[in-house]
């Protein structure tokens, strides 16, 4: 009996260990793909910014367009913003059955909003704009670092990322109670993107902020940034819900975001920031920064320019030049000399398409190398690496310091190793070690840091000798059952008390019936979702994988060892995953430890083609580029109308062609844009944009 008990115990421990290994591998896949996507966003922006830095508009039309599209100082002046977003001119029809708001707001208004959003009702655009107007007025009065005391309330509740998941916010309020004079809340950024109800979350939080300004505190996250919103869904959500007044609402959100405080300090002992710190984080400087100047943290002029053409000065409102302090050129123009710069006639579509594809690809590749987008380059591009600080005059030097302070606070992550280094995984901010945390806490007499920014399986996690606490409030973030959400409560003793939850009913039921083996089913479900995403990622890089495999297959046998397979896959995807451990889930069958990579790639293609009936090679390109294409489309579509006008397309093409030495006449550009407008309605929608991309690739 004793031996049987030991045997069962060993079997059970092995079973639990295997489940834990599968759980960790699944988590690594989700996180690696998420961070790779954030890298793409920053690299894409760097690419556009590099082109913009080298572009000199030649007419007032081009100046207006470029100013509208790329210049960071695009915020409206006070009077202009109020006039543009005038909510009083918008009438609420009698047929409107949703909630009504009147100011000053009362607790009953918040209750009505909660009930309306639970019933999937929508707040009228007039009330949204009015709410944003009042929120902006309130936020402008707040300091960069909010101060909260537990003396005035029994406890302070801190919530992490919500990412548009309204059910999580409802569950927090259900478990913990609504904000009130005796119940303070700190919401630590990333309210928007990814989820489908970001707007409702913001409306609820802003409402409680105005009702209880001393009890509700909001920090800015890295997703409270309109450049990030272009990629991750908030911009699209607003335009879908408010087709008539969506542009005004987005403009107001953009302005409100830049007025959100950057940090919250509880009892002068616990600092709450969204991302983290670096070895240069200075709270004194952080308190003095004009935070509203940083509409997007992804946008910073990368070098000082002091004597550029007058029209550029008119756009930027500052003195700029293409020379540095020593009088030398700050950066060379793209010295691109294609063999045939003159475009063939657009009458010959096949010849023109061939020339266009070859020329654009060559010059895009060159541009990518210059701004470090090339995958073969070991070092990632960061703004700090592009700025020569010693060459800057005092105002520009200060501006760079302030920008880095905000970037580090919003984008950084802790690491177990000592020191502070560039965060190449996300592409922004830094990694800070326990020594950096210890020095920072000692310098400002703090007990510990609370931050968010990273999804944790249990909803929270301590690191750095329990001096850094990560709190994440969006449950089921990657997939149903992938993680719990959590919030933390702090009383006068500042001892954290955690509450965990899962908002999805299915996940909750699975957790409550563990004895029937549902944990295994839950892990399998989440695991399959992760591997499906990973297989899509592999398929999207088929061409690069074939090249990598052939480097190990010198005899062209079509076969490589599994060890070489793992090395080649990592060299292409660069996700930092344990490929040898993941191999059994990705490679179904092998002979003598050797993989026939062509048939393996064919299987991947078959899996994806079963979902979309598109040519395999073309589908690969679309999988790889769709997210970037959608972001580019939304950058060009600056009025968020959902379509690109001919003028917007023409000016964008000029921006590219001016740096690719492509001599294409206005008539040629007109022919090109008309050929993309398949339904001949005078505009280009995203489907036409994507279809044109597919045709060029074909």
How much is the average pLDDT? 77
**Tally of DSSP helical segments:** 26
Q: Which percent range describes the beta-strand content?
A: 5-15%
Instruction: Report on the biggest sheet.
Output: 6 strands, mixed
CATH-derived topology of the largest domain: Purple Acid Phosphatase, chain A, domain 2
Number of distinct beta strands: 18
Structural class: alpha/beta
- CATH homologous superfamily (4th level) name of the largest domain: Metallo-dependent phosphatases
Radius of gyration: 27 Å
The shape is globular
Percentage of helical residues? 40-55%
Low-pLDDT runs = 301-341, 370-393, 510-518, 612-620
Total separate domains: 4
Could you characterize the architecture of this molecule?
The protein is α/β, with parallel strands linked by helices. The chain has 26 helices and 18 strands. The strands form five sheets. The chain has a six-stranded mixed beta sheet. It is globular. Mean pLDDT is 77; it is low at 301-341, 370-393, 510-518 and 612-620. It comes from Panurus biarmicus (Bearded tit).
